[in-house]
Inverse folding.
């Protein structure tokens, strides 16, 4: 496998030969499908004929959702509200390994395409249901990333007291989709042993609860409720943001006394290197305001580039405060080939991160740009041997929407 595409590369991808129907919208379902697609599965996004997934047309915060989460997929438009559309989907279910859905609670059952129905048609099917909550008192509730961040404690831990704040990305949607992938891969492995598929469930609320486990464990050990992260007790004397002379901010974290000695040497703070009051982290914490005020003053004399150059030389943890768009020019992401050029719904090109995963040193390439509605759907329909007349009739009736396969990305 390599980052240069060829038929041999596609065949060598780990999930090559696995066929997936994705009844996904917004982020959680599409994120699950994206990971499987990047790993080599043949993923077909099932959308409404004509308009397609709503995320194709979102503006503002959601403007990039479709571009971000739908590469390496094909599309097929099917009107699932019509009986013939539902029956067509069930015929397709017989030809695939995995079905992903993240519709509202009860929707797939109401449409007649729930787990039990689909797995009767294909006992080897892995049916992955992505919801807000596991079965229980909340199972009927509608959920959003922001909803579960609030009720699960993540927003409380992120903002200062009295100002709960959602995380700056759709972390629970993406995490839940990732857990869906873990469940799907586990079920595929078990299918090798049993010959049968099963239902996989992954959820938003329980994913947030899993993230909160470290704080729950801490409370169990100390007996104290954890404060929000901006107000957490100081463990390290130097673990803060520092301003620079050119108006930027850089985080510096000194978490060992060896860090401290290297820091003092490279930054020319010989007076502090020889000061016994500052020789240990405990001493630096005890030094309190006078030390921290003077440290901020000294570092403020440096530009951002000077500060990060010296911090790297000192081999201490550091990070400039970047915006997401700064990642386009990040030297590490570019030199390590961590970004792929992806075509947006408007025809523009944006470079987006690959999966943060490598096997044998190889990452996973972009093979197919995010599809137009129905693009590539004919490949799937060919598996159930529809006649030309049937396909024309279904298209004319607005039940099916498909186009030729998208070109392979070279």
């Amino acid at each position: 496998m390599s980052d240069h595409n060829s038929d041999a590369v596609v065949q060598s991808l780990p999930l090559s030969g696995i066929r997936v129907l994705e009844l996904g919208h917004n982020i959680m379902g599409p994120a699950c499908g994206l990971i499987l697609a990047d790993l080599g599965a043949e993923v077909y996004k099932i959308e409404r004929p004509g308009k397609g997934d709503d995320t194709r047309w979102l503006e503002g915060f959601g403007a990039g959702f479709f571009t971000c989460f739908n590469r390496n997929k094909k599309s097929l438009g099917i009107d699932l509200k019509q009986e013939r559309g539902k029956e067509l989907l069930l015929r397709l279910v017989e030809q695939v390994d995995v079905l992903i859905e993240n519709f509202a609670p009860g929707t797939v059952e109401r449409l007649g395409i729930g787990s039990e129905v689909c797995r009767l048609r294909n006992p080897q099917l892995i049916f992955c249901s992505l919801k807000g909550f596991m079965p229980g008192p909340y199972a009927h509730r509608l959920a959003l990333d922001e909803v579960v961040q609030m009720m699960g404690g993540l927003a409380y831990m992120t903002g200062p007291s009295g100002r709960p704040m959602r995380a700056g990305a759709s972390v629970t949607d993406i995490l839940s989709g990732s857990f869906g992938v873990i469940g799907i891969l586990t079920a595929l492995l078990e299918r090798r042993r049993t010959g049968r598929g099963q239902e996989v469930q992954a959820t938003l609320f329980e994913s947030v609860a899993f993230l909160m486990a470290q704080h729950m464990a801490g409370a169990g050990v100390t007996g104290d409720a954890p404060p929000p992260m901006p107000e957490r007790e100081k463990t390290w004397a130097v673990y803060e943001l520092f301003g620079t002379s050119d108006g930027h901010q850089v985080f510096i974290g000194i978490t060992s006394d060896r860090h401290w000695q290297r820091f003092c040497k490279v930054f020319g703070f010989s007076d502090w290197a020889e000061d016994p009051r500052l020789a240990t982290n405990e001493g630096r914490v005890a030094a309190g305001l006078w030390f921290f005020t003077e440290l901020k003053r000294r570092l403020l004399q440096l530009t951002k580039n000077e500060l990060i150059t010296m911090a790297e030389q000192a081999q201490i943890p550091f990070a400039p405060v970047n915006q997401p768009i700064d990642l386009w020019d990040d030297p590490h992401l570019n030199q390590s080939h961590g970004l792929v050029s992806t075509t947006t719904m408007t025809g523009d090109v944006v470079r987006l991160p690959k999966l943060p995963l490598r096997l044998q040193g190889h990452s996973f390439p972009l093979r197919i740009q995010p599809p137009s509605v129905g693009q590539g759907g004919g490949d799937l329909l060919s598996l159930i041997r529809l006649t030309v007349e049937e396909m024309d009739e279904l298209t004319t009736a607005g039940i099916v929407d498909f186009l030729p396969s998208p070109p392979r990305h070279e």
User: Anything to note?
Assistant: The chain has two domains: 7-212+337-401, 234-323. Confidence is low (pLDDT under 50) at residues 1-10. Residues 175 and 325 are 22 Å apart (CA to CA).
